[in-house]
């Protein structure tokens, strides 16, 4: 039965890979919407995949969220990525501190015996503050590290869930509703076709920067995220997905 199950996931992984046009898909059994441990299993698999890609002195940019927090939780000292540097992909996005990229980035570095650099930026930022803060030498230095990341690891959220969790102001909620936003990643909200509906004003990685990164790993599971996952990959900027059976089965059903 174990081999049968392995085979079943091989087929499912191949299907999801084709639907989303990805280089690599890894599926964990179960549904993280139903059982909390599945999210940690996703985290473990994401860490194992990361290990296969890391070289000494690599820079890894990471986003926030509970899935990325689970990846951090499951990390162990690195064997390949010695002396790696963790940076937050973007500044604060209105998340609780344990779900913020800065916190997760520091925890990952500690677990993997690496280094980290943080982005100290207020949240949210006005246009005026944004323009002046990116001129600050301390911020510029970290921004350059982010733009030169070798690997990016990020979560994908359901647009409504994320907007609510981040206590998004009413006028932005209206914009998300009118624009039919279904997914969120890196503080960007996307519609079903993968078009940007809105973005949170913060410093750090811009969507365009992802095109220069060889390995972009998305970690997202749960049946409720299937639509969000499909929407995010429409704009084709990540090439690896670590997901679960719940999301994967829903994805192939919907396509
Ligand atoms: O930044 C947050 C992610 O897009 C999704 O968060 O992993 O807690 O669902 P999550």
Tell me about this structure.
The chain has 255 residues and is of the alpha/beta class. The protein has helices spanning 2-20, 36-53, 66-74, 101-111, 127-133, 137-147, 159-165, 170-178, 226-234, 245-254, and strands at residues 24-28, 59-62, 85-88, 115-116, 151-155, 157-158, 181-185, 188-191, 196-199, 215-219, 240-244. α3 packs parallel to α4 (101-111). It is globular. The mean pLDDT is 93. Bound molecules: glyceraldehyde-3-phosphate.
Distance between the termini: 28 Å
Strand content: 15-25%
On the 0 to 100 scale, the average pLDDT is 93
Alpha-carbon Rg, integer: 17 Å
Structural class: alpha/beta
Poorly predicted tracts of residues: none
Give keywords:
255 residues, alpha/beta, seven-stranded parallel beta sheet, 11 strands, binds glyceraldehyde-3-phosphate
Quick synopsis:
With 255 residues, the protein is of the alpha/beta class. It is 43% helix and 18% strand. The chain is built from 10 helices and 11 strands.
